[in-house]
Each structure stands twice: as structure tokens, then as C-alpha cells.
Amino acid sequence: MRTPPRPVVKRTARAILLEVDPADPYGPASIVLIKRTRPDSPHPYWITPGGGVERDDRTVVEALHREVDEELGGKVVDVVPAFVDTVSHTLPHLPHPGTAADDGTLPHPHGVKVQHFFVCRLASMDLSRRHGPEVDEPNGKYEVVRVPFTREGVTSVNVVPPSLRAYLAANIEGVRALLAPDLA
User: Fold this and answer.
1) What pLDDT shows up at residue 102?
2) pLDDT given at position 120
3) Do residues 49 and 157 touch, judged by C-beta distance below 8 A?
4) What is the CATH number of the domain that holds 172?
5) Which has the closest alpha carbon to 96: 86, 111, 106, 84?
6) Selection from 32, 133, 23, 131 nearest residue 76 by Cα
């Protein structure tokens, strides 16, 4: 008997955001991360910029651009799909089971969250332009940091999810190659 696929109850778009000199694509690089410290924990973790795909987003890539603008006041170029992470996820505050959602589908409180990670190059960033819930109503600290994009750099901090940290550490050269000028 086959197990039916779990419903996707949330999707996110996240940027593996590299600062790379276009004239020297294999030279030194850094990854832009957000150091997240919750008020109830002294232990920070590092996340890639990004967040949930919203109803108004026409595509996952459009959500990525919106999230980078909100969280960094940034613009990205050379957006390339790189990694997908799927984890169990429970939706809070759903209508009563059996109640149809706006689109006519029945809500599933239990399913999976699919995180789409895209490698992209930072075109510009103006932190004074940051906006959105993380800035307007922060729950703790959100610090924009740069980490060397090396095995040592990405493993020196607690990048989450752990699957992304492992993927990056094992694929530094491959991830950089996704931005190579001869890929297109």
C-alpha cells in the first residue's frame, strides 16, 4: 500500500545570497545571512533572507524578490533554483476542520512546508529601506551579517535549517558555479 503524499501547507522562498565580484566569479565571496536572536533564547541562529509565499505573489521567485526587498532593502539578480527542503509543518489558527478556504479547498492543518532556496547575486542593499513584520514588529533581533562563503564560514555559524548548512558545506564550488557567466 502506497502512502499518499502529504499536503503542502506552506511554501517559502529563500535566498542563498552571494556577494561575488562579477569580474572575478571564482574570487572571494561572502553570503548574506540574518543572525536571528529570539528574546527567549540566548543562542542565535542564522537564516537566509526570505519567507512565506503569499497569496498576492504570482510566483515563488516573485515572493523571493519581495522578501529580499522587505528584509534587506535589497535587489537580487541571477536567480537560480538550487535546493529544496521539505519538513513536516502544522498550520496554526486554521478554520474548523471541514471548512472550505477562500479558494474552495479544505484546509489541512498537518502537512509539509516546502522551502525553495535560490542562489542569487546581491545587486544592491540599503538597510534603511527595510520594512515588513521583522522590522516593524520584531520578535527579537534580526542582524544582517556577511559570512565568508567557504566551508569554514558556513559551518562556523548555526545556519538553519541544518539540511541547508550541510548542503552548502558540501557544495561551495557547485553553488558558486550556478552563478557562472557561462551557465545560461
Assistant:
1) 52
2) 96
3) no
4) 3.90.79.10
5) 106
6) 32
